[in-house]
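Trying the structure run again after the queue cleared.
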Amino acid sequence: MRKVIEPFINNKIVEEVYDGDTIYFYGADEILLAELYLEEQKINSITFYHQELNRECVTREQLLAIIKHVQQVFHKEDYVLYHILDGDDYYVELTLQEPRFQLPIHSTGMKLHITKEGQLEEIFFLQDEVEITYPEKIISKEQARQLLLGQPLMKKSIIPDNDWQYGYAPNHEIAGVEVNGRVRFMRDLPEMKDACFKELPAVEPVADIQSFLLGGRACGLNRYESDDRTTWEIDDEHFDQKIEGNPFDRACIALKTIVDDEYIHYYLESIPNLYAALGMEDLDEEITSYRFVYVVEDSSFDFLAISISVHQATNQICSVMLPHIPYEQLKRAPQPKISLEEANKLAKELVDVELTLEREGFGSNRYQLIYLIDYPTSPTQGHIHYIDGETGEVHFVETGF
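Done. Tokens:
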């Protein structure tokens, strides 16, 4: 293995130490030079240490030469450069390329971490054996775009990032256009089968939420406050003191006590096929986390769900995570000045589609073609985040580009 280490270090390797699936490479005076990790007898990652750093930053041409050198050492000249993230260091992504349309195959190839001074810090290897399914019929990009334009791209929503005012958010139900000409909806995905929001049972609040969360246990209750959330954590590792009731009802009682009258706006997020679709159907969790989603005026705050974790055997609550939602402000929020029709028109003037490859299932090495939503003129290279309901200004997702 040292032949793939030596080209990237300036010190002589004097010892290799094998520890399970990890190989450590040492120089003189027991200085750790590199660490190589194997997975199923293949190199999974390499980390380099104690390099003699240059004082000057490398140029773009020198960086590309380093990348090419890595490809040559590992005989991966067929990988194509997909992306270079220029931050505090360089983060490089190389992928396999689909032969017919020259598309990058995501989650394949390798990732490199290279310092600004040109030192190779880490290499991560991804899968390099894939199978691509080509259907008999592949519609054109323009045909896919026209199908997308027939869909409502935006929906009226309250926008937390715009001071909780009404505006228009992307309709995330639309996932893309399949190359056979069928619009793909999120509900079509295996993991989203039978996904829904369920109404909560009528429950009565308790007088003392802290005593309720402790459930008679002689342990600590830690409360953490931040600008955007409140968290309770019960300092009890075993949760072996059983209490009456059932886990779900106790979670609902805690929710009702915390949010009071807003309880009627909360629903249980139910995604029954998620674990099975992710290949985790045999997962047997002792602790279940219930996610409660606030829904008002057809706006569902999925990313601001209250999460309450309960031990299934003892019914004891383990933790509560409460994102802050300004309920009273929402009730006073004025209706948007621009209409949903106008918002969709703005989005449709900007939207396009991009032919790409997707896995046929979680963890699969089989890929298929699909047209995904794209906004080619986005200044951030991201999708629409929201459209201001007052001004009609389009805001894009911040990506760091």
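Helices lie at 60-73, 141-149, 209-214, 247-259, 274-277, 327-332, 340-350. Worth checking whether this holds up in the mutant runs.
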